[in-house]
Protein: ABC transporter ATP-binding protein
Amino acid sequence: MSTPAAEHGPADGIAARARGLTKAYGSGETTVLALDSVDVDIARGRFTAVMGPSGSGKSTLMHCLAGLDTVSAGQVWLGDTEITGLKDRELTRLRRDRVGFMFQSFNLIPTLNALENITLPMDIAGKKPDQEWLDRVIDTLGLRERLKHRPAQLSGGQQQRVACARALASRPELIFADEPTGNLDSRAGLEVLGFLREAVDGLGQTVVMVTHDPGAAAHSDLVLFLADGRIVDEMPRPTAEAVLERMKRFDVIRAQSDPERD
Structure:
């Protein structure tokens, strides 16, 4: 199922796309097909959520689009650059320069303060941050008074905000967020989702978020639903209630196909 960006309102092009994206693990009778010939377009300047039952392939899709995992077949582009077939060094440089990442675990360096954690990827690359942009990100995320604090001195929500700022600091073409609220309480989770929303609306970023939470998905512009390695549905302008109803249908279908499933 293809998801042309033009169907979801104006957007300045496509940030990432895949055609015939297939990912298989194992071989022979033990082969597991995680992604099955997926076609997808990620609209630039939009917030896209990816949802589906456990084992549906949503994290695998994100990892393949981000160049964190190889593909078994098909093609993936970041902007106009096809990343399938790139050598490891080229892929590493592309991820470093053009992609930002947020994960469920904050992945902050405990010996560095918040500012040092934010600028670490650019420091490693030997690049100076755009100070005006960096200041804007820091102020948007409300971190100005926490820059000298180390991770142990920050709350979970503040640590995830630092991780969000790190993903935004280099002004990447695309931010991938894998369950970014999974380790946060509801209040901190709402804060981070609000910041991701602001990154899209106020800072012009593009965000792709994998989540299992209908409330989190409701912050996006478009939800893509995966089942058995395929995109089976999509929902523009989602609400938490509508997403929850759609996810319940997955459970009904799976229960009907496998009566012994718990």
Observations:
- Residues 5-257 form a domain with the Rossmann fold fold (CATH 3.40.50.300).
- Residues 15 and 44 are 5 Å apart (CA to CA).
- The beta strands are 14-25, 32-43, 47-51, 73-78, 81-82, 99-103, 174-178, 207-210, 222-227, 230-236.
- The chain has eight helices and ten strands.
